[in-house]
Amino acid sequence: MASETFMKIRAWLGVAVLTLFMPTILFISVLMYLYDNFVRRKVCKDIAGEVAVVTGAAGGLGKCIAVELAAKGCHVAICDINFDLAVTTAKEIADKYGVKAKGYKVDVTRYDEIVELNEQLTNDIGTATILVNNAGLLLHSDQLNPTVQEIEAMVKVNYLSHFWTNRVFLENMKQARRGHIVAISSIAGLLTLPQSEPYCSAKTAVRTLMRCLRAELRLNRITGIHTTTVFPSFLKTHARVKTFVQESGYADMYPMIEGEEVAQRIVRGMQRGEVEIALPGFFMILYRFITVLPARVQDWLFFSPSIVNLTSKRAMASLKEQ
């Protein structure tokens, strides 16, 4: 009993010491932030000639990212469930940028198809050392009452697919001793959105998955493989989401972002070696602030009647009309 009591006291003393040194830690953190954003950012690694896999790349944000990678000299695999559109996108990119680009029909929730994709891509273009996990489902057919099948599909596409693609393509990177994995999460992976339990849960899981991956790489002293997790806000690349954001009132709080702008920021951040990117950037600061508050305070701030009246009720009304 005495031993357990001592262990508890020791743990709380550790927290007290950490709290004592928190001002110093915050000061060092600010210096690191300034260095990363105003000094280190000038140094961008060259990705020309690398082979990149982009999931969900036939259209939307995925296409914008594939275009931006091609503009930097990357060969790209356009992976999507819509094969015809993937082929068209690949041809557009190849013709415009003079890189190798090919469309592949892939269900990213199926591990065997990811393995087959890796084999085909290696034979067609080369070994992939850049992976962008972009494929995702945004809304259900009935957002307020989704079916079991829709919930399962959202969790598989938005989270499980990252697990499978990381597992397959990470082996390429380990053999090449270099690589970069980019995961497209969402602001919903940082801040909670009402009536979006499957979406928020899956996007939060992606954030945790990437943190675990970073820890694994660090513990195994693998220095040539890097990761970037992206938390974008609402984009203009999806017609139904665009309508929802405008009618709900979220667009009145902050304007929606162009897909091209987000893609440029993602690729630039990847080249700089940034670990996490929020778009717009103040969301990351807001998230850091929120996490130090007690849960009851967080709920009071973000789910108070005034906030609910401002956005959530309008959002629910918009969903009922769709």
Automatic annotation (TrEMBL):
InterPro entries in the cross-refs: NAD(P)-bd_dom_sf, Sc_DH/Rdtase_CS, SDR_fam
UniProt keyword terms in alphabetical order: Membrane, Oxidoreductase, Transmembrane, Transmembrane helix
PROSITE patterns found in the cross-reference section: ADH_SHORT
Transmembrane region(s): 12-35
Pfam families: adh_short (PF00106)
SUPFAM superfamilies recorded: NAD(P)-binding Rossmann-fold domains
Family: Belongs to the short-chain dehydrogenases/reductases (SDR) family.
Protein name (database record): 17-beta-hydroxysteroid dehydrogenase 13
